[in-house]
Amino acid sequence: MFAAVSSATLVGVEARPVTVEVDTGPGMQTFQLVGLPEGAVREARVRVRAAFDNAQLTWPSGRLSLNLAPADIRKDGTLFDLPIALAVLWATRQLSGRAIGRLREYVVAGELSLEGELRPIRGALSLALCAREQGMRGVILPLGNAEEAALVPELEVIGCETLLDAWRFVRGEDGCPEPWARDAAGAAGAADDWPFDLSEVRGQPFARRALEIAAAGGHNLLMVGAPGSGKTMLARRLVSVLPLMTFEESLETTRVHSVCGLTRPGAGVTRLRPFRAPHHTISEVGMVGGGAGIPRPGEVSLAHNGVLFLDELPEFRRTVLEVLRQPLEDGVVNVVRSQASITYPAAVTLVASMNPCPCGHLGDVRTSCRCTLHDVQRYRGRISGPILDRIDLHVEVPSVPYDQLRGDSGGETSAVVRARVQEARDRQAQRLAPWRLGSNARMGARELQATCELDGAAHRLLERAVSQLGMSARAWSRVIKVGRTIADLAGEERIRACHVAEAIQLRTLDRRLDNLPSSAERSVC
Fold first, then answer.
1. Distance CA 441, CA 471 (A)
2. Nearest-CA neighbor of 224 among 524, 513, 514, 488?
3. Using CA atoms, how far apart are residues 211 and 241, in angstroms rounded to an integer?
4. pLDDT, tens digit, for every residue of 250-290?
5. In which element (H, E) is residue 335 found?
6. Whole-prediction pTM value?
7. Rounded distance, CA 130 to CA 12, Å?
């Protein structure tokens, strides 16, 4: 007898429909699985057969053929265990006509243990979105994925603990699992749950101001300072001053994390903006995604709607930094392989840190620098000009004097700064609504011309800066974007010369290295 159960497979962060087809017939007892299954899918025959035996369900005694359609898409993961089991029950007439009609209305996914229990799977949110797009009534999933899948409105979610629970639900028996109640309350926000607060930072008023501007406009930030000056401490507190996530942003972030198996069972939606800090030994694939078979998201996608922190930026391999060009510019990652072409979201705020020189003490008033000008040039040359152009803010983070370290307070709390950031973001969202953009950093040439009006003094100042500092066209546009953000924080519509001046001051690395003091002069400091 033939049976077909609806399921789905993950391709990138999306789920694509898959039909689990089962056909039984007379002959030698065999189990043949086709449809481009990967190793974990092929092993389903062992898990499903053992689950049948332990649940005291009847396994077919003859030939069993199983196809995962469409057959030209690779299938990976353990989510096909449950749909295979229900399709076998249907094909062996252990489900009635009424139960079969009910089963046709649901997308089914779940991993089976040998005992017949259902274990959580990756990508439950993507599967639920796929089911809604197909016009299905709901999804049947492991209980541990029910809260996550229930975030999708207008969809019935059935969370089951065992194979028998799913079988009883399809049959409509008493005591079967009930649809999961959707509760989106508290899905967004809760930035105060972040364990770090800006008030813990001692001194560094210039860097704190840069952090606020970066949060207000979604700008990328590079901090340059001696070891121990507080660069990492500042970076970790950027999340606490970013605006609270909207429900849509929470769904996008949860979707990426769910596909990578980073969501905890029963945790529901991701409420905090992600903070990812990969080690400098990371590979290109680890940074932007990819890999053998079906590509997986990388660190830049896991930081979507949050912060990607690259500590000791020059220590990252040149090729790893160069693959960040397109994601930083477009907010997405396009991974093209022979078997698939996938787009991952990558709207991140990049925060990076580095020392001013190899020894780390260039410009430090307390420790003499041992580096020559050539050493400094070679060290900074590890970061290409195109990457620096894509970083809006370059700020110096000097060592903190002792009297500031022993102070009782570090200044304003994250909540106070976040309130100003939120007001600036609200102004941007209203102004950029025709282009569906949420921050100044995402503006293109068209939006820049339409929304960034400079007064005469600002134009003259920017002209002198471009000619004297040798700024590229991209750096010029980013100075204007930062000036627009500074004006938003001040509540002003026009960009004035003081806003442009501060934006230029926040691009430290645009200053020429040949203006640096010589090694002899630096040794006096």
1. 18
2. 513
3. 9
4. 999 999 999 998 887 766 778 889 999 999 999 999 999 98
5. strand 332-336
6. 0.88
7. 13
